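Same chain as my last thread, 195 residues:
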Amino acid sequence: MSQVTTAGAIKNTNRWSTRQLVTMALMCAIAALFSFVQIPILPAAPFLTYDPSLMPAMVCGFAFGPGAGFAVGAVAAVIHGLILGEWVGSLMNICATLFFVVPAAAIYARKHTFAGAIAGLLVGCVIATAGAVLTNLTIGVWFWYGSADAIMPLMLPAVVPFNLIKTVLNSALTLIVYKAISNLITPKKDQVKGR
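reply #2:
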């Protein structure tokens, strides 16, 4: 959206600049590709596989705010679902983005320091793990398991540790990647020296 100023010039009033939108589109593509990496972590639950697709979403969340991070993660999840024809998994991945990326990016937006990033990621790990339990007991039961009895025995030995490991891995990757590219993708006015 644009707006004409009193001087007759056109002022861009969009929330995200063209450069940010291009960066977000690139991150969506990377996240969608990463979503096809499937690495089993726990031998007790080989059906639970890790992929690093939330890392690009978190990088965008740190750079451009929680809305951008959520948009990247959600679009990547939809792309993955459309390619595989698996919408339930996409819905659960959208929820994972909401629970992990949004709180972490929101905290980092308020406290733009390394300590703020760590605090945000820790909160995101906890909320995402609790959210995984919730989505497995709701969406998972409704569309996959048929009954909570099918998944409840796996909650503590598999679902909770898997999601803690997954979010910690994504957090570590985010810190590495964001540190390396933050000044390339973050608007100059929002750059913080030494982060």
